[in-house]
Amino acid sequence: xxxxxxxxxxxxTRTPFHTIERTLGGTATFAxxxxxxxxxxxxxxxxxxxxxxxxxxxxxxxxxxxxxxxxQTEKTFHYxxxxxxDLAKRTTNKTELNVIANYQSTVPEExxxxxxxxxxxxxxxxxxxxxxxxxxxxxxxCDTMDFWxxxxxxxxxxxxxxxxxxxxxxSEAKLLFKETSxxxxxxxxxxxxxxxxxxxxxxNGSLLFHNNEFYPLPAFPTEIxxxxxxxxxxFGGAFMGxxxxxxxxxxxxxxxxxxxxxxxxxxxxxxxxxxKLVSVKAEDIKKRHQKYKEIFTY
Length: 298
Ligand code: AMP
What we know:
Blueprint: E1 2-5, E2 9-14, E3 19-25, H1 27-35, E4 41-47, H2 53-62, E5 64-70, E6 77-83, E7 90-96, E8 116-119, H3 124-131, E9 139-143, H4 146-151, H5 153-161, E10 165-169, H6 170-177, H7 182-191, E11 196-200, E12 206-210, E13 213-217, H8 231-243, H9 251-268, H10 282-296
Parallel strand pairs: 1-4, 1-8, 2-6, 4-5, 8-9, 9-10, 10-11
Antiparallel strand pairs: 2-3, 6-7, 11-12, 12-13
Helix pairs in contact: 1-8, 3-5, 6-7, 8-9, 9-10
Bound molecules: adenosine monophosphate.
Adenosine monophosphate binds next to β2 and α8.
């Protein structure tokens, strides 16, 4: 079983072309919907009393949400961000933690034996606390972002030390180590404990560092880009979902997982919020996978 812990959010996203307000988002949302294309996925998180019933139903239709708590007293985590014309650099306008501020997460009994745990971007202390509650997962991967690197850097470093794989985007990796070289960041991440690091570089693809080797992979080329929110989480969910179906996690397997990560990220950016991601069928993934192999096999 794959269990994903992270935020389930209401997102307000502003681009020069369109604004969407309080739409379904959150790191665990994108990651688990993406992962569910590869393996049955369970979600742990918390939402507030303002969380729309239709969103709850959407999650229920795709995931095991017995781990989702609904607070009757507080509001859902709300993230407000803007993109400029390049639709690449994000500016955070507001991070309203609400329900997640004092969330004491628990793992439902049915999930305790999960062999695969993905700790999506979330409070690193909460991520470490929840990890202790699993009986002994085979593979644990985490993600993080600028908000936590700025506010809880020491805890982020402790968390990285406790996982098998770390995934984060390029600017966050550079922020974490105050480094300008992405390759150096990948090496530094691995020197802190995990056996591999994946650094996402948006339309420039992603980089894997494993067994002392660097493996850069291109992004899946798509001309449509409306909203990059959740691309990293969709990547992470697919990456972990694919790995959970494999026997071993050698460099070749990790690279294949990255291809699926790239593909799911390419779907997510093509529409606002989760709109495109939820419409993706197995056939669509297969087509992009085939295309990816054609383009990048020399
Ligand atoms: P990304 O894949 O990096 O684009 O992640 C986007 C998601 O991260 C959004 O749907 C937000 O709800 C969520 N998010 C934003 N800030 C935070 C934060 N500080 N902690 C956890 N999740 C966040």
